[in-house]
Amino acid sequence: MSTTGTPAPAAPPPVVPDSARPAVSRARYGLLASLFVITAINYLDRTNLSVALPHIKDDLHLTATQQGILLSSFGWAYLLLQIPTGRLIDKAGAKLAFGYALIGWSLATAAVTLSRGFGSLIGIRVALGAFEAPAFPSNNRLVVNWFPGNERGRATATYTSGEYIGLAVAAPVLSLLTVHFGWRSVFLVTGVVGLLFSVVWFRRVYDRPEQSPKVSVEELAHIQQPDEREPSDAAEKASEAELSTLGADLRMLFTNKRLWGMYIGQFASASVLFFFLTWFPSYLVEEKGMGIIKAGFWASAPYLAALVGTLTGGAWSDRMLNNGRSRTVARKLPVMIGFVLASIIVCANFTDSAPLVITFMSIAFFAQGLMQNSWALFADSVPRRLTGTGGGVFNFMANAGGVLTPLVIGFIVDATGSFAWALGYIGIVVAIGLLAYALLIDRVERIEA
Questions:
Q1: Predicted pLDDT of residue 11
Q2: What is the three-class DSSP state of 104?
Q3: Radius of gyration of the chain from Cα atoms?
Q4: Residue 7: exposure state from Cβ atoms within 10 A (0-12, 13-18, ≥19)
Q5: 282 pLDDT band (50/70/90 cuts)?
Q6: What pLDDT is recorded for position 240?
Q7: What is the DSSP letter of 381?
Q8: What is the pLDDT of residues 424-445, one digit of tens each?
Q9: Residues 230, 406 contacting (CB under 8 angstroms)
Q10: How far is CA 197 from the centre of its chain?
């Protein structure tokens, strides 16, 4: 501590000398593979409840409102801790924050096997949400550190696709586990998977490419290439001197019109996502009359469609950018098309045909995959030194939708005895997201505080 009471500057991160680096490397893709896997595990552990819920409901005699509260409880601590954990990531680094979070949430997942009632389940789910809070701000920070601007769309799409491929593969497997070994087995298996991967994470991941001995001089230069569309280093340093307190940083993040367009859009996108992550298997079982194993296999189709949508949106966005289209068009267009296509979810109200229902749901979830390009848009907009804190604010807004959506759907189902108005609610929210992007985000560029 300095004599003035101001904290001493942190020690610079260790840098590997050029002589110790390989001649050629693509180490950033190894980092991206780790982000893909940890994101798949992250979503597996937050959504395994939805697969087991039809059995949990019968075992514990839960109403739809109680199910909604249980599905929402994950988001309570997750939501409140977004900004504090984002700030922690800016100060301490993403590797440690994400790695210890992985161990914590894996233990919380396995602890579900010890629960004996509605209250204990809620308590464990709140703990799970608290431990998972650093996930997406950490992802955002690592992508900004490890990828140049013209590769961030595809990088974001790749790690985000981990959400869907894990669920697409796991939904049938978890359904079989639920039926043959009981619903508690689902949480034990998924918790152990996370603990095993934590060993890989701590051994292979570095906060910055200059810390990794696997990054060549050539790759490091490629990652750190200047982007004339972003503020200069001098502007970044001036910004850092100007905004030295959390209050000033948050004031900037909460008073910018463009950022509010992104926040509202992310709320809408998360509302679609959390319908699929929470109520979708129960919707297929209760509204469309499918058995749990059949629902598990049918549910794979929309998850795979979302995977395709995510990869398509990221690749298309980067291609437009590399072909000379403006950053505004390249980053906004996939998301806005996603909002339009997602409204087709309402059409599932007008048919009981399983293939048609799954088709409508697959298009809607494909559209939500396109919306995931919003993370690349946000990474290109928030001041670079605030990618952790800003990512926390952005994810806070997203998970406000994640908290509200399961609750609203539970209330609607109890009040009406049907999911019809629940799908109508999703349609209304995506229309609001589309308007926010159209009216509030006039252009996409790095914001200078």
A1: 47
A2: helix
A3: 22
A4: exposed
A5: confident
A6: 46
A7: T
A8: 999 999 999 999 999 999 998 8
A9: no
A10: 19
Which segments of 323-384 does DSSP mark as H helices, in order? 327-342, 354-371, 374-379
Q: Within the chain, what is the greatest distance between any pair of CA atoms?
A: 73
φ, ψ for residue 24, nearest 5 deg:
-140, 145
Report the C-alpha gap between 283 and 261 in whole angstroms: 31
Helical ranges in 275-353 per DSSP H: 280-282, 292-322, 327-342
Angle in degrees, 0-180, between the axes of helices 387-416 and 246-255, rounded to the nearest 10: 60
Q: What is the pLDDT of residue 241?
A: 46
Question: Tokens 């940890």 map to which residue?
Answer: 38
Residue in this structure with the two tokens 């961030």, named with its chain if needed: 152
Q: What is the mean pLDDT of the segment spanning 39-65?
A: 88
Among 3-7, 137-141, 366-370, 372-376, name the one with the lowest average pLDDT. Answer: 3-7
CA distance 353 to 23: 58
H/E run at residue 29: helix 27-60
* Res 90 pLDDT > 50: yes
Helices (H) and strands (E) in the chain, counts: 19, 0
Evaluate if residue 297 carries a pLDDT over 90: no
Cα separations in angstroms, 275 against 47, 72, 181, 278, 404: 11, 11, 26, 5, 10
What is the C-alpha to C-alpha distance for residues 183 and 445, in angstroms, rounded to an integer?
47
User: Is residue 176 predicted with pLDDT exceeding 60?
Assistant: yes
Angle of helix 135-146 relative to helix 152-181, nearest 10 degrees? 150
Residue with tokens 């469309």: 288
Instruction: Compute the half-sphere exposure of residue 308: CA atoms within 13 Å on the CB side of its CA.
Output: 11
| Reported confidence tier of residue 242, pLDDT bands at 50, 70, 90 | very low
Q: Give the count of beta carbons closer than 10 Å to the beta carbon of residue 213.
A: 12
Residue 9: what pLDDT?
A: 41
210 dihedral zone (left: phi>0; alpha: psi -120 to 50; beta): alpha
Query: Tokens 């619903």 identify what position?
Result: 183
CB 397 within 8 A of CB 268: no
**Joined tokens for residue 365:** 């979830």
Q: Is the pLDDT of residue 3 over 70?
A: no
B/e letters for 347-383, b = 16+ CB within 10 Å, e = fewer, are bbbeeeeeeebbbbbbbbbbbbbbbbbbbbbbbbbbb
pTM: 0.74
